[in-house]
Each structure stands twice: as C-alpha cells, then as structure tokens.
Amino acid sequence: MNNKTYHEPANNIPVYDECDILIVGGGSAGHSAAIAAARAGAKNIILMERYGYMGGDVTGGYVIMVPKLSWYEKSFVRGIQEEWFTRLAPIPNAVLGPDLSKIGKDDDDALLGVWARIHGCVSESEPKRLVRAVYYEPNQLKIEMDKMLLEHKDAIRVLCHVWATKPIMEGSEVKGVIFENKSGRQAALSKIVVDASGDGDAALKAGVPYWQTKGDERKRLNDCLMYKISGFDPDTKAQGCLIDETMVLWGPSPGPANGADADELTREEIKTRLSVYDDLQEKIKKNPDLAGSQIVETGALLGIRQTRFFEGVYAITGDDVLEGRVFEDSVAMGVNPIIHSFGYRRFLTHEGYDIPYRCLVPKKVDGLLIAGRCMSSDQLAYESWRAMAPIFAIGEAAGAAAAICAKDSINPRDIDVKKLQGVLLESGAEIGQSRQKQPD
Ligand SMILES: Cc1cc2nc3c(=O)[nH]c(=O)nc-3n(C[C@H](O)[C@H](O)[C@H](O)COP(=O)(O)OP(=O)(O)OC[C@H]3O[C@@H](n4cnc5c(N)ncnc54)[C@H](O)[C@@H]3O)c2cc1C
Q1: Does the pLDDT value for residue 440 go beyond 50?
Q2: What's the 198 CA to ligand 1 centre distance in angstroms?
Q3: Residues 195 and 24: beta-carbon distance below 8 Å
Q4: Could you list the residue range(s) of the whole structural domain that residue 272 is in?
Q5: 189 lies in a domain?
C-alpha cells in the first residue's frame, strides 16, 4: 500500500433511517440474530449484508455440512438451525442426513453401512454409531433464509449490497453505522449494533481490542475454496459432501493469508481459484472413481475461517471446551471437536460445554454485541465453536439480547441474563445448562 495520505474533507451525509437494532452481516450468525430479535419482539431491525444473499460462508462459501450434532441419542441442534432442516426437508434433494429418530444406533449394520459413505454420519470411535450430521443444498438454503426474513418483514428491513464502513460513536458507545452502497454514503442510527460481519468491521473501528494470527506465526485454521463436481461414480469413496448427484469438495487452501486485508485476499483468492483444476486431478489420483468428474462451480467466495477475535468481558478458552465447563450466563453450547491445533481432530469426552453471554459483550465499548466467528475466544476454543451449530446459537443469543436491550433501553453489559436465558429457552434454543450426563 502507498504510504501517502489523503485528507477527506468533513461533509454531511444523509441518514438512511433510525432503528432499534442494526445487524452488520447476514451470515449464519447475523441472519439468526435478526430472526431471533424479531421473534423476541423487536419491531425495527435493519440487517445489512455485503452480498445479495444471506448465509456468508454457509451459502456463498459452499460450506454445506453441519457435523457432529449429537451425543449418543441426543441431538443438540435446536432453535433456528433445526428450523432450517425442517424447512428444507420437504424440498427434493435439499437436505441429507440420518433420520433424527435413528441417531445413536449402533446395532443396525445395514443402516450404518448406508451412512458410512457419507462423511461424518457414523462415529469414528468404536462401537460405530449413527451420528447426526446434515448436508444441505446451498441455493435452496439461500431461498429459505430469504423466506424466513420475509416472514418478519414488518420487523426486519434487509439492505443488501451494502458495506458497513464505520461505527458512529458517542464517546465509547456505538450509536449506529456509516455504510456505502451504489446510492452513496449514508448513516443508519441504532440503539444497539450487532457486529456479525465475521471480521468484526464495526468492532474494529469502535476500538474494541482484538487479536489475530495473520500469517503462519501461530497455529490457526486454514482458509479453503470449496467447489462442486458432477459426473463421478455414484459409489465413490472420495470424501466430500454428496447432495443432489453432485459433490462439494474441500478444495485448495491459499495458505495462511490475512483474510481481513483486501490486497492479500484478492491475490490469494485468484491464486486459489486457479489451482482448483490441479486439486481435482490430485483427488482423482487418490480416488480413481472420481475420473471423468467436471467442476460445476467454485464457491462464490474463498471460505475464510478466521481473522480477528475481539476482547469480550470473558474469552472462552480451550480448557473450558475440553473440561465441558458450565457457566451461569450460558446462552449457547458447543459439542464439536477441536479440529487443528492438536494435529488431529480432538473429539470431546463429554457432552458439550457452555458458551457464556459475556463472550458477546465487548470489554470497553457499549451499545455493541459481537456475534459469530469473531467472538471473544482463544484459538483452541474457537476450533470447536467455529462450527455452524454453535455459531447459529450465538447469533440467536445476540439477537434476543439486542431485543431486550433495545426494549429496556439498557446496555448489553447490564442485561439480566436470566431474562435472556428465559427468552431463548422459550423460543426453543439450546443454551446448554440443562444437559444430562452421558447415557450408559
Ligand atoms: C472453508 C470452510 C469450511 C468449513 N467447514 C465447516 C463444516 O464442515 N461444518 C461447520 O459446521 N462449519 C464449517 N465451517 C465454519 C462455519 O461455516 C463458519 O464458522 C460460519 O459459517 C461463520 O459464520 P459467521 O456468520 O460468523 O461469518 P460469515 O459466514 O463470514 O458471515 C459474515 C457475513 O457478513 C458479511 N459482511 C462482512 N463484512 C461486512 C460489512 N463490512 N458490511 C456488510 N456485510 C459484511 C459477509 O458478506 C457475510 O455474509 C467452515 C468454514 C470455512 C470457511
């Protein structure tokens, strides 16, 4: 980058509107936050999204597998994500995964044989059991996510093709966001802002301290370009996400790139896309039953797994995850393995851990909640809660919390957590504390 500076003259910009809750980013966290806020009674919500569709990584990034959703017979997905699956179920070829009533079964060899071909649907440990893992078709999901928002159109206004650029601050309190789109630069004022942008674009400029592993200076999750193929042998043993006679593969990685740096991201994204054909050739060498496959599509965006993590009142740790800690202010739970730092997928030896509300509340800045993959955490813990199911639940909790704060005119740090937990439980969310012990 050139090190010259340009002095931007001060000017007046139009106020697009005022609202109670403004959500930046319509990924799995932001979309859930908007729906949860509306269901908790908020009437004036704006949801801003950079692209023309919802979902972020889970639609545009082609991340279409929701793994490890059960512990023995118990499924942990509830709330808005379970609603995705029930909405997709009647649509032909929109969703794939073992039947909920069969989860945990270890005595039906035929059933286990059928699901063993689908990655993640049978346990890696012995005895083999049926595990709840769900695959979905991302274009159908985009449509369902739109429908869910439209069902709350009296409460939620969606603004796509918008880049939220800067929070509006009064002292240390966020009061809205400046954004840009084809119509120019505008301001949206809000009582509460939920930053669900994945990279924490609003939190960054609000001055919330953060940490980030930008390159390979420490262990971190790699980014990856997912792509879809067709024309393979339907009995292929290759590991991928099979759906609708196509398969989505975990594609090439750019190496440890800084996904929050536009120049670096551009360079790495192009480089990665150019290596997709070589990646498929490598996979064909390992799995000859993929021979003849064609690349149908590459993900609309390079899947960025991690960038900034913002300091909250509490940062969830690897110990919390490994010990299965229970927190008084739990608003979500995680059950997924820690996938990278140990050099193998370290599955949990208990039925899950709580995710405290304090991780969503920035340490020093008011009027702001942080939801999704940039929440307050250390690296180890993130490698577990980064999966979609917890991310959804975190978004849901942020939305319900924002609704309470806006209604009661209070700051997120002053919320009555019991009241928040009550709202979440009433809406059908899984908040962790009611867990039972491992079945015999
Ligand atoms: C390659 C890859 C593979 C993965 N595999 C799995 C898997 O198999 N199973 C699983 O459960 N999880 C998986 N994950 C993790 C999971 O998909 C993510 O952690 C989760 O989807 C993150 O959701 P999010 O809403 O926090 O962020 P994102 O999905 O990144 O959403 C952020 C949204 O904000 C928007 N946005 C960003 N900046 C702005 C701005 N300034 N203004 C307006 N909008 C903005 C973006 O366009 C995007 O829609 C994977 C992730 C990746 C990248």
Answers
A1: no
A2: 6
A3: yes
A4: 222-304
A5: yes
